[in-house]
């Protein structure tokens, strides 16, 4: 039916245009501190979406926060010590994160499932403790980390120190990254990831090199996590080992799980919903110390009652509307 | 390294091995019977320590009464976790792990709200100490931990080998379906494993409270240690957990004494990675679990 096709295409385009307008207008409707949170939210969207690419192959890593940190540290060092221009330093940071994932995949992908989870956790902690290690303080700054990271330079007299402008920069970078991630998922490569997740033995038996595809997913996911880290480092201006600890990893997991990982938009729904909940509701209640408890309760409730995440609500709501429509049509028919 | 320092480090390592073994054995027991990685295990240890903070340092009850209360309280927390989280998620092993992360955050927040984020100093229950050969010192406070580990783990070993419940527990750990077919109650054995596993962590926390100055975030390093021990020892192997706890405690304590704590943590994690790469079933693990 070509007619409905153009219809949905048109609707889709309209939706995207509307989304773009909202995203561009949004910072002007917010206070200064909310704008700062918005920047971090956009960075976190990239972080959690890059995480999802790895989960497509069925592996859950606990190193993602540290890999983000690798991007942040590398970019900060490249800009500060090697005086790279900041945009180049950011790409270097992302590249280093990807390269590190390439190296790590040799030991890590000898394992699967629970063993991979634990091994990735160990590998991440080793990297994080190296930053903390007193013998390397001259390079990584020890537990205090790196301070006074050069900010993003002015471009065409746009001051990127302003959260609004940095938000637009992040928006563009993240939009391009998400597009790439989406295209990868929709390509043959993405299909192969799915195949490896659900039928790895079968995939191997028809000639798929599962190791290389797992490695590819890990490297791409690390590259974009590193990019998110670089965006973070040059915005905040300081990085420290504890910023990338296992607690941060827990938040990435919560966003992904509460949102759901079956669809591309699931993790985005998760991170946006929880950030709004966090910043609007919890902040207005003024219960900063209780924040982890809310997150914990949300995590438990969602795993118990909504194991497929918030994304699974959408088809349900659609189905509910469809059922109502049908019912109305039936009652109308009956009335006639 | 002088002889004196050497013996002192051996004494310190023995103490570290004792509480690590208590924690790791509980962790392995829960994993073996329920198939769940209990990420909140470090926070159960923390809860045990805070029971002593509240009842011994706060209310002023005798130290060992507070420790016993910690054992029971944390054991009950374990029962609560089993009932509310792990039972509904029994068919979803990753779900159990994630739910335990949620539980961990809740326990941490309760500790922060109840006692504040700062370290709590618990006065030692006794000032007496043993002076061993070559001037190495073992305080009674540490001796209690060593004795408790030996007594409790021996009791657990006999319980698992000799009693009917123990047989049921081990049967469930080996093959859950077959155990059910033989008429064993999965719910009952899971409750028992959870109570014992949690209570062991609680006792370790309660006994070490005067020695480590509890904070709400003390569970983090504990869970890392527990992971290292059970991976190196082999998932589901209680004897392996005890042996590796001793091994790891010695390595960690000696590296900390000779170099520094961060390097000791790195060495421990690399040890675990090495074992995972070379022999993922662990040094003492019998076979890979599905």
Automatic annotation (TrEMBL), chain B:
UniProt entry keywords in alphabetical sequence: Amino-acid transport, Cell membrane, Membrane, Transmembrane, Transmembrane helix, Transport
Membrane keyword on record: yes
GO molecular function, one term: transmembrane transporter activity
Gene Ontology annotations for the cellular component aspect, listed alphabetically: plasma membrane
GO biological process, one term: amino acid transport
TM region(s), chain numbering: 16-37, 67-85, 97-119, 139-160, 192-211, 265-286
Major subcellular location class: membrane
Membrane topology (UniProt): Multi-pass membrane protein
Source taxon at top rank: Bacteria
Localisation: Cell membrane
Family: Belongs to the binding-protein-dependent transport system permease family. LivHM subfamily.
Protein name: Branched-chain amino acid ABC transporter permease
Organism: Methyloceanibacter superfactus
Organism lineage string: Bacteria, Pseudomonadati, Pseudomonadota, Alphaproteobacteria, Hyphomicrobiales
């Amino acid at each position: 039916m070509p007619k409905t096709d153009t219809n949905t295409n048109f609707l889709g385009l309209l939706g995207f245009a509307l989304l773009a307008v909202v995203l561009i207008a949004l910072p002007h409707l917010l206070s200064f501190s909310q704008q700062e949170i918005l920047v971090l939210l956009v960075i976190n969207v990239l972080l959690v979406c890059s995480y999802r690419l790895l989960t497509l192959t069925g592996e859950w890593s606990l190193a993602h926060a540290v890999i983000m940190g690798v991007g942040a540290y590398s970019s900060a060092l490249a800009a500060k010590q090697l005086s790279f221009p900041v945009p180049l330093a950011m790409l270097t940071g992302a590249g280093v994160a990807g390269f590190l994932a390439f190296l790590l995949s040799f030991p890590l992908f000898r394992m699967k499932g629970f063993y991979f989870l634990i091994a990735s956790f160990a590998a991440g902690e080793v990297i994080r403790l190296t930053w903390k290690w007193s013998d390397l303080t001259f390079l990584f700054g020890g537990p205090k980390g790196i301070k006074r990271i050069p900010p993003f330079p002015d471009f065409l007299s746009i001051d990127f120190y302003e959260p609004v402008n940095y938000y637009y920069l992040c928006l563009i970078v993240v939009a391009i990254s998400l597009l790439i991630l989406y295209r990868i998922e929709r390509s043959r490569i993405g299909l192969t990831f799915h195949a490896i997740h659900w039928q790895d033995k079968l995939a191997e038996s028809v000639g798929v090199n599962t190791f290389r595809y797992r490695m590819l997913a890990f490297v791409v996911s690390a590259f974009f996590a590193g990019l998110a880290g670089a965006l973070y480092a040059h915005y905040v201006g300081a990085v420290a080992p504890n910023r990338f600890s296992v607690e941060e990893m827990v938040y990435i997991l919560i966003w992904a799980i509460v949102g759901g990982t079956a669809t591309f938009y699931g993790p985005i729904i998760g991170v946006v919903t929880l950030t709004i909940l966090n910043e609007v509701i919890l902040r207005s209640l003024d219960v900063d110390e209780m924040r982890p408890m809310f997150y914990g309760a949300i995590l438990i409730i969602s795993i118990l009652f909504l194991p497929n995440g918030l994304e699974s609500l959408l088809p349900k709501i659609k189905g509910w509307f469809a059922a109502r429509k049908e019912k109305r049509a039936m009652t109308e028919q009956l009335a006639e | 390294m002088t002889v004196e320092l050497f013996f002192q480090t051996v004494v310190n390592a023995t103490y570290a091995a004792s509480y690590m073994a208590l924690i790791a054995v509980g962790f392995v027991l829960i994993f073996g019977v329920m198939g769940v990685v209990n990420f909140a295990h470090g926070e159960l240890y923390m809860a045990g320590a805070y029971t002593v903070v509240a009842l011994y340092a706060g209310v002023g009850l005798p130290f060992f009464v507070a420790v016993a209360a910690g054992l029971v309280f944390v054991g009950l927390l374990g029962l609560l976790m089993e009932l509310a989280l792990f039972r509904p998620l029994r068919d979803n092993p990753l779900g159990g792990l994630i739910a335990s992360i949620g539980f961990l955050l809740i326990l941490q927040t309760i500790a922060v709200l109840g006692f504040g984020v700062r370290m709590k100093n618990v006065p030692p229950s006794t000032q007496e100490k043993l002076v061993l050969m070559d001037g190495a010192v073992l305080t009674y406070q540490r001796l209690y931990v060593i004795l408790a580990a030996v007594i409790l783990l021996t009791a657990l070993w006999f319980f698992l080998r000799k009693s009917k419940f123990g047989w049921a527990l081990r049967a469930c750990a080996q093959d859950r379906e077959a155990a059910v077919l033989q008429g064993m109650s999965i719910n009952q054995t899971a409750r028992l494993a959870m109570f014992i596993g949690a209570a062991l962590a609680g006792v370790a926390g309660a006994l070490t409270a005067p020695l480590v100055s509890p904070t709400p975030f003390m569970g983090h390093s504990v869970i890392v240690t527990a992971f290292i021990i059970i991976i190196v020892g082999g998932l589901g192997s209680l004897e392996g957990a005890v042996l590796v706890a001793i091994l790891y405690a010695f390595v960690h304590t000696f590296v900390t004494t000779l170099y520094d704590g961060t390097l000791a943590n790195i060495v421990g994690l690399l040890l675990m990675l090495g074992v995972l790469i070379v022999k993922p079933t662990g040094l003492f693990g019998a076979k890979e679990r599905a």
